[in-house]
Amino acid sequence: MTEIHQLDSILADQISAGEVVERPASVVKELVENSIDAGSSQIDIVVEDAGLKSIQVIDNGRGIPVDEIEMAFRRHATSKIASRQDLFQIVTLGFRGEALPSIVSVSDVVMETATEGKPGTKVHLKGGKIIDKQISESRRGTKVRVDNLFFNTPARLKYLSSIQTELSAITDIVNRLALSHTDIAFSLLSNGRELLHTAGNGNLKQVISAIYGINVARQMVFFEQENNDFKVQGYISLPKLTRASRNYMSFLLNGRYVKNNHLSKALVQGYGSKLMVGRYPIAVISLRSDPILVDVNVHPTKQEVKISKEQELCDLLSQSVYQRIAQENLIPDALKNM
Ligand code: ADP
Ligand code: MG
Fold first, then answer.
1. Measured in angstroms, how far is the CA atom of residue 95 from the centroid of ligand 1?
2. What's the domain count of the chain?
3. CB under 6 Å to ligand 1: residues?
4. From the CA of 159, how far away is ligand 1's center (Å)?
5. Ligand 1, atom nearest to 142 Cα
6. Do 24 and 165 contact (CB within 8 A), yes or no?
7. ∠ CA(255), CA(105), CA(180), 5° rounding?
8. Which atom of ligand 1 is nearest to the CA of 57?
9. Mutate which of 37, 69, 123 for ligand 1 pocket (most atoms within 8 A of beta carbon)
């Protein structure tokens, strides 16, 4: 032990990286969320060996101005919030300014970025340090390539699961980002194989079809309801189409994919006694509220959120699902799909 001293910033970033980048899928999530926040209409994700060899995220968003590049890699540096007030009105997916510094502290990164009509910049970072910076000819947008993830954190590397498990975590997160942003065209390529492709035309049913298959999409029904505080809408499966896992229920709160047991329970409750024990619906549900009702600053990955008036939201969800299912039962089979 030594006397108390301030850790240098790269070491501090490596420590906090543990919370933000647990596995390759977390890198994909953070980079794609940055691309979404940059107003992109197309985002292409390319991974090799489930991201352990490399991860690339290519967008056509607004890019980073040349004089701000170095700042983007510093901890708690963000363009998304400025004041305490903004913290209660978060409308972007990021705001903590932690992702880029965390990722670069545990990998090799090359970023090429350009703003509209300006020459681009290409920077190369190794273990958190900029080792090269050049002007590059780029079109508007940003391309980030991450190699050798966790090269300097051997324990983290050892803890990772098989390539197959890591790849399914990546697919899972990209699917949910595509479901929550139907106006963005996504593609996911893994070792040359296309795992997802969406059109970006705003059609949620088409995205559901791209992810779960056309037969599933055909058997899902739309519902929509609102009260003074919340609007809930989306597609749910009828009770005859179920899965043995809760993983097919997605909740998108103000455009952010969230994990919330109370919402899952409320959805299942809406089916009443129509689901068998251990069976769950397939559902993609968008929830909208004034951002002031949602605290996203609970956990670094921002998938857990605190919702004010959560019970009211759960009741609205259960009731609207219940009514939609009941309504379906009133339509004689012969008239369905006419
Ligand atoms: P946060 O997203 O919380 O602001 P990050 O560390 O993820 O923090 O990113 C830092 C900053 O870098 C962002 O606020 C944004 O200004 C910029 N940035 C990162 N990725 C992109 C991108 N793909 N396109 C444009 N700007 C980006
Ligand atoms: Mg971010």
1. 9
2. 2
3. 30, 34-35, 38, 59, 61-64, 72, 77-80, 94-100, 142
4. 28
5. 23
6. no
7. 10
8. 23
9. 37
* Domain membership flag for residue 202: no
Q: pLDDT of 274-307, one tens digit each?
A: 999 999 999 999 999 999 999 887 777 778 889 9
Nearest ligand to the CA atom of 79 = 1
Whose C-alpha lies nearest to ligand 1, atom 7? 99
Range of the domain at 183: 9-197
What CATH number has the domain bearing residue 84?
3.30.565.10
DSSP state of 204: H
Task: Quote the ipTM score.
Answer: 0.99
Q: Whose CA is nearest to atom 8 of ligand 1?
A: 97
Cite the DSSP H helix spans in the chain: 9-20, 24-37, 69-72, 84-87, 99-105, 154-159, 163-180, 204-212, 214-218, 261-270, 310-330
Task: Using DSSP, state whether 337 is helix, strand or coil.
Answer: coil
What's the gap in Å between 309 CA and the centre of ligand 2? 28
pTM: 0.93
Contact present, 235 and 220 (Cβ < 8 Å)? yes
Q: Are residues 32 and 179 in the same domain?
A: yes
Residues in the chain: 338
Query: Which single residue is written with the structure tokens 């299942």?
Result: 268
Tell me if 239 is assigned to some domain. Answer: yes
Cβ neighbour number for residue 115 with a 10 Å cutoff: 19
Where residue 244 sits, what CATH number does that domain have?
Answer: 3.30.230.10
